[in-house]
Design goal:
single chain, alpha+beta, 2 helices
Length: about 80
């Protein structure tokens, strides 16, 4: 399961709970703001209960414009053969 730390985008709810730009420990992983990690699904309920709004599970929410945005894939062309 993918877990995205989206606390790098400040919201009133995150401010109230002190989770703006928070480093969040999930199991043996520490998710820095704007990062994504694969984590074990057994942590889903804990994340939903404790970190709702700070961690997005499986996919980024529509409209999210923080550091965790996936970078566009750049297709590399094979090198041209030299004669």
């Amino acid at each position: 399961m993918k877990a995205y730390n989206i606390s790098d985008v400040e919201t009133p709810a995150l401010q109230q709970r002190g989770l703006v730009n928070a480093h969040i420990r999930v199991g043996d992983r520490v998710l820095a703001p704007g990062t994504m990690h694969e984590i074990h699904p057994r942590y889903r309920a804990m994340i939903v209960q404790r970190f709702q709004g700070a961690i997005a599970l499986d996919a980024l929410p529509p409209g999210y414009r923080g550091r965790a945005c996936p970078q566009p894939t750049i297709k590399s062309e094979p090198p041209e053969e030299s004669e």
